[in-house]
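Summary for the lay section of the report: proteins are chains of building blocks that fold into shapes. Here we show the chain for DUF1963 domain-containing protein and then a coded description of the shape we predicted for it.
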Amino acid sequence: MVEADLYGSMRSHIPEDRHSVFRMAIRDGLRLKHASAGDAVIGWFGGLPELPVGVDWPGDGKAHYEHVASIDLATLPKSDLELPRRGRISVFGDTEGSAGAFLYFPDDIALREAALPPDLESDDRVFERVPMTYAVVPTIPSPRWLEEHLLYEDDADEVLEQLEAFGTKFFTHSGSWHQLGGWANEIQSERDRGLLPDSAAERHFFPQGAPAGQILLAQFDTDHAIGMGWGDFGTLYCFIDPGHLAAHEFSDVAVYWECY
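The coded shape description reads as follows.
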């Protein structure tokens, strides 16, 4: 993905009679970026997390996961995820496996900086801490989804070629792309349902019933600047069932990574 002129690309790559339908599928997300001086800081990448007394650093029982990021929800703009307006989320990932953890702490729970577990320290498995900021960006479905829902049976080959070129342009990016909400940029699987339950877009594209899949909470890309990597240029994903998201129940978030 790039922060490109999405609508300009739409006009040049997508048939005009499908513009309104395409717009229905667009969802805003937050691109999470390294903060510079003067940026609004919403949390941090890497370093040490802050955890409540009595809560263990997450792991699989054999080793601990690396701390990926922590975000203060009170600093975020309102989004269609309808996350809690206050509290803290912390994400952990296992660079030597494929799992991780997503923790949410309400703002009435006291937090303190956790000590780095000895196994992470001895293996130097800690990402560099850098402050985090954000930019609101449009996100779109995968190229396969676009072809499935925007192509007609009688379309000429040129239409497919234009859609493929559009997807390639939008999903190609230089630099790391971390994101909160919106459509996922999935590498291998197709877990992302993308559309929110009972939304106008869901009713339009799936009139016979809700699509399968989960909602993306966050994704964290390979980020060499801070030593973060998931296999071969992979991405760590955090997905949640729509019902659990609506109930702000974060105890069963699917956290895993995929790579090329």
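Put simply, here is one thing we learned. The chain has a mean pLDDT of 94.
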